[in-house]
Amino acid sequence: MKKKVPEATGFENEIWAYALRNAIEHGRAVPGKVLPKLFGHGLKKEDVGKVMPELRKIVAKVDIMSDKERADSMNLYSQYLKERPEQENFLPALPGHTSGGKVVLRLAPFPSGALHIGNARTYMLNALYAEAYEGRVLLVMDDTIGSVDKPVDPDAYKLIEDGLKWLKIDYGKKVHYKSSRAKEYYKVAEELIKKGAAYVCHCKAEELRKYRREGVACGHRMLPADVQLLRWKEMFADEPGGSVLRLKTDMQDPNPAFRDRVLFKVSDREHPRTGTKIRVWPTLEMSWAVDDVQLGISHVIRGNDLQMETQTERFIWDLLGWEGPEVMHTGLVKVDISGANVSKSKSRAQVKSGEFSGWDDPRTWSLQSLKRRGIKPEAFRAFVKELGVTKNDVTVPIETLYALNRTLVDKSAKRFSFVIDPKELVVDGAPYWKHVDVPVHPEKDDTRRVMLGKKIYVPGGDWRASKGKTVRLLHLYNVQLPASGAKAVHMGESVEAKMPKIQWVSHHVPVEVVMPDGSHVEGVGEAGLEKLRPGAVVQFERFGFVRFDGVEKGKKRFWFSHK
Ligand SMILES: [Zn+2]
After folding, report:
1. Do 411 and 115 meet the contact criterion of CB atoms below 8 Å apart?
2. Which residues of the chain have pLDDT under 50?
3. How far is the CA of 232 from the centre of ligand 1 (A)?
4. Is 486:424 a contact under the CB 8 Å cutoff?
5. Radius of gyration of the chain (CA)
6. What long-range pairs does 341-344 form, CB within 8 A, spacing at least 24?
7. Please, which residues have CB less than 5 A from ligand 1, an ion?
8. How many CA atoms lie less than 13 Å away from 322 in the CB half-sphere?
9. 285-308: per-residue pLDDT in tens?
């Protein structure tokens, strides 16, 4: 039941409501955070000056209230809050956020290449939560040593940052690097060893697997903490694979994979940031267990594939008496791109070998490639919002992203003719027109002037399909196509519904389109393309949306966005 609030004029109740919520969530209320909310309640921009004195007055009152007073008042005023639309529509509430503390999330990419559509989704989801809760996201580069198959790529750092910036994800100015935090990890390792919760194990990988499978502890596990500590120091001079530091979970744990997880390994490989200076590297889950607490993360949103890592982190937090962040798992989203490869590690090999033109090659499905194809970051944001947090793994067709992008570009994209495999025609009996004005966009009155020369070019495929038949040249007139040769015949101008309509150009420029599968489609485009600026997204009629990339070897080069 709603309680009665004293009559108020204007937006007084709403100001109270948002000022209280702001203060409860962030310790104090800020006028700049309260004001924007009022627009959702019908405040007009021109009336901002009128409400500001009242708003400041109420915020000042809220600021000197005690927590208890704020909570009591909130009971009265909460009815005036409009639910945050994001939470209502697509984001389930963050777990454990009833107290209303500051929300700090983290993006933890492993820098082995550019971000692709799949991993960028998780980062976008974190960013959307940060926005919805007026919190922050930190960028924590997961640059431990990786593995032979998945090494740190020095180029990846910038590629990742560029991708996140393109998505307009605000992670602040500071970037955190695991490779700079080794000392922090070692301190925690020693703490665990001293507690008797970790041990140095010299078992070979096969032995380790065997003991784990059988649920049997190895001899190394039993040694006392002071011996472990010595062995841990020796580990820094050990050969790769000679020893690992393992967490004592339970060798009888029902899940064999959780039995005494490895926390640190020795590696001789060179790291792009630290060279060979660091030899003992934490596993990712060990580094997360430390970072998520030490960097003040309040919530971790991660894929269902990391359940075990979450379990390890919690195990470590309990051992150390740390209060770790809330962890929320979400189903993985597999984007269904027929026949395409979206594996970062595979892409890396193809980029390095030169098989792909670079990290923006469309076949990498990296954010760089999407950008170059004319996909808008707003479309990707909407795509992630639409998917939301899923309980189970889902497969989404790439067309979902395309449809969202189409709604963004359709209104503004100018239409042009593009003719593949051009077939030259001379139209007998055609009216002598110097030009024809055709619509710039089917829903707009604007027209573009297309100059007409003696020759007309139609798609070779259309000509072969309709040889000898009468067709309509879009926005122009009807012609009977020749069965062979170049001579077509003018057949009047009346539009007939059943007549096939085909593209044509007269004055033209050579055009090349880079397709998502890496192939190139060549043809000619109308001369008006000369005026385009690089970056422009246009629609080639009957072909699809394309982004003008620039001139390459005398050809106008476009990248295909989608149909
Ligand atoms: Zn052992």
Report:
1. no
2. 1-8, 85-89
3. 13
4. yes
5. 31
6. 341/365, 342/116, 342/117, 342/118, 344/112, 344/113, 344/114, 344/116, 344/119
7. 201, 203, 218, 220
8. 23
9. 999 999 999 999 999 999 999 999
